[in-house]
Give the backbone structure.
Amino acid sequence: MFNGLIKYLECETCGERFMHFDIESTLDDYSHPDVFTLDNVDNIIDGIIAEYLVYVCSKCGAKGKYTIKEIEKRVRKELSKQLLTAMAKQEMASHNFHSKKAKVLIYCGKCTGLDGKGSCLVPIYNKCKLKRIPRGL
């Protein structure tokens, strides 16, 4: 699971999870004369490539440069979202909220919700503890 999170990051341009590490773009970027010269060949030994990695979106073609810390932050955020979704699904299953009478959905966006887009039925929303979590998690 962790490997898949690092392999495909969410694209900042199109919002889809198609950003993948592109070794060729990373090497091309570092081989640019403004970035790397023979005068600082000692930096290769110290790991100049560790400064950033280039990720490319397979869907829209956008490129982004990310440090390991930025990638780690994005992975932790994605793991948090997945945890909240799992907790919400467990809560829905424990209260058996799949009623034929309840048809009104309320959007809070804290998890993927019952509809997969962040909305839940009113009884679920009223009893949900996740809606108290602040925005921007």
Notes: Helices lie at 2-7, 23-30, 42-46, 68-95, 122-127. Residues 85-132 form one domain.
